[in-house]
Design a protein that fits this description.
This protein is an alpha+beta fold. The protein has six helices and four strands. The strands form two sheets. A two-stranded antiparallel sheet has the order 1-2. The longest helix is centred in the middle third of the chain and has 14 residues. The chain is globular.
């Protein structure tokens, strides 16, 4: 719905509407994970994240059998890093991302095209 306030028109959306309708996982992965090269003397953020997740889960500081990953998103870096140490449950706001992770976990050939 739209409201008019002080000669400005604004659109009121339910929380998450923009994310549901405008988030494109392939574009996100392309923008942030297409290359693992750094920029000049700066390390690639994806490499930094992977290394730190690996060190965190491999350190043994976190005990337990299960890990709940809220907001997993289209990247599987947290899943890969923790998979040797925990049984992982992934959850994301977008249902199609949850389905894609389920396909991948089950080893389905459909997972490659799920996102």
């Amino acid at each position: 719905s739209q409201t008019k306030m002080a000669d400005q028109t604004s659109t009121i959306r339910k929380p998450g509407d923009d994310y549901v309708h405008y988030f494109h996982p392939k574009d996100y992965l392309h923008a942030y994970y297409r290359s693992f090269n750094g920029n000049g003397d700066k390390e690639c953020p994806a490499v930094f994240i992977m290394r730190n997740l690996h060190q965190t889960f491999h350190s043994g500081r976190f005990k337990g059998q299960r890990l709940l990953d809220l907001g997993t998103g289209p990247s599987i870096m947290s899943i890969v890093s923790a998979s040797k140490h925990f049984d992982i449950t992934c959850s994301d706001y977008l249902e199609f991302i949850n389905r894609a992770h389920s396909f991948a976990r089950a080893g389905s050939s459909q997972s490659s095209g799920a996102l």
